Amino acid sequence: SLEDIRAGGGLLNGDQPSSVYGLWGNVGVNQSGYSKFLNDQFRITASSTFDIGDHALIVGVEYE
């Protein structure tokens, strides 16, 4: 019967699995909630190359 399935730890259609040790939601549990994130990033990069005689100098700056 359906109660025997539940008594053996089985799930019926529409049932939710119990939490793991009362701490975390188990696989297949619907999570409800709302989150909003604002992630802005700004970056400036500059580089230059100079040839002086037999030498090549490369200079670069980066700010993030």
Strand arrangement within the widest β-sheet reads 1-2
The total of beta strands comes to 2
In terms of structural class, how would the helical and strand content be classed? mainly beta
How far is the first residue's CA from the last residue's CA? 63 Å
> What overall geometry do the principal axes of the alpha carbons give?
rod-shaped
* Low-pLDDT stretches: none
Description:
With 64 residues, this protein is mainly beta. It has one domain. 9% of the residues lie in helices and 28% in strands. The chain has 1 helix and 2 strands; from the N terminus they run αββ. The chain has a two-stranded antiparallel sheet with strand order 1-2. It is rod-shaped and about 90 Å long.
Q: Which characteristics define this entry?
A:
64 residues; mainly beta; two-stranded antiparallel sheet
